[in-house]
Amino acid sequence: MRKLLLSHTTECVLIAVIIAMSIFLAVATDRFLTLGNAFDLLNISAVNIIFAVGLLVVLIAGGIDISFAVAASIVQYLTVLALERIGGGGWTSGFLIAASIGIVLGLINAFLIHRFRIISIVATIATFNVYFGLLMFFTKGVSLYNLPDWLTTRVIIYEREMADGSWAEITLPVVVMAVCTLATWLFITRTTTGRQLYAFGDNPDGARRFGINIGAMQFIAFGWLGLMAGIAGLMQAHYAQEVVPNALYGRELDVLAATVLGGARLGGGKGSVLGCVLGVLLVSITQNGLNLMGVSPFAFKMIVGAIILVAITLSSARIGALAPVLGGRISTDGQPAASGEKR
């Protein structure tokens, strides 16, 4: 038991913090600890969790991507337009189209990073602006409301009537989120490719020496995030029952903060699906609690910023501590030095 707790310290701390925060919010407001609010939290968090498990794979591989939320917005728009062209389609065609577009957008990031040796955050800042600029230019900021009936019809998995006559519901995005979470867990923990991603993120130079294909790792990681972004975009359209071009704009920082809060390391080689999910839930609970208490939403943005700052600080400290151990194989910019490079 002690060994298990030590190996999952981050997850245990997050669970303790979530419990403590829930107790505080239950005392501070009478609306927090209700079934309806709990189900609402799950429904609202579903899209962010799908984003987060995709981003987790990229972070494990030592990369970072901030373009996935805008990519999901593009997926929404193009998927709806494609469905109109084929006469409306259904859930199968919707998932196939959304997933395909998302993967393509993710692979574009991987191509730029691998082919031109661009640092991942720089490459994705560029694609973030390119994607969003193209989306707003071609759509002129016009939202889509004429979605297929199957996409706008709420799929309720479980519902229960409350004492006040309202209904507490678990909807389709929660189930899709659970499937994506399970698939990501199986991928990174039960496959050879998943273990290679951890090895590559932890020590790219060593992974290269062991014959791991660096390009393949980057394409797989960013392709997986693209897949998750595509699915999340479709679920967002289903949940909102409309496609707003800038609806997901800014979501990337919330998801990044939640993912690193869950134990994913900026710098690669570490992260778990459970920690990732707990991180998103903690951020969602924080936002929900602040809203119920009437606190300004700007306070939530400050919290997100603080989380990212702490994560970057801790990651930088770790890289600095490892430099002597690795015998100079880490360069001054925090990137592994090429084999044979003179310091």
Roughly what percent helix? Answer: over 70%
Distance between the ends: 45 Å
Q: What are the secondary-structure elements, in order, as H or E?
A: HHHHHHHEEHHHHHHH
Number of strands: 2
Which shape, going by the Cα principal axes?
Answer: globular
DSSP summary: helix tally: 14
- The strand order across the widest sheet is 1-2
Helix/strand structural class: mainly alpha
Average pLDDT confidence is: 89
Rg, rounded, reads 21 Å
Kindly estimate the percentage of residues that lie in beta strands according to DSSP: under 5%
Largest sheet: 2 strands, antiparallel
How would you describe the overall organization of this protein?
The protein has a two-stranded antiparallel ribbon. It contains 14 helices and two strands. The C terminus is likely disordered. It is mainly α and 343 residues long.
Topology:
Layout: H1 2-7, H2 9-28, H3 35-60, H4 68-85, H5 91-116, H6 120-139, H7 149-152, E1 156-161, E2 167-171, H8 172-190, H9 192-202, H10 204-209, H11 214-240, H12 251-261, H13 273-292, H14 297-325
Antiparallel strand pairs: 1-2
Helix pairs in contact: 2-13, 3-8, 3-11, 3-12, 3-13, 4-5, 4-6, 4-11, 5-6, 5-11, 8-9, 8-11, 12-13, 12-14, 13-14
State the gist of this model.
Helix content is 71%, strand content 3%. By secondary structure, it is mostly helical. A hairpin with a 5-residue loop joins strand 1 and strand 2.
Pick out its properties.
single chain; globular; two-stranded antiparallel ribbon; mainly alpha; 343 residues
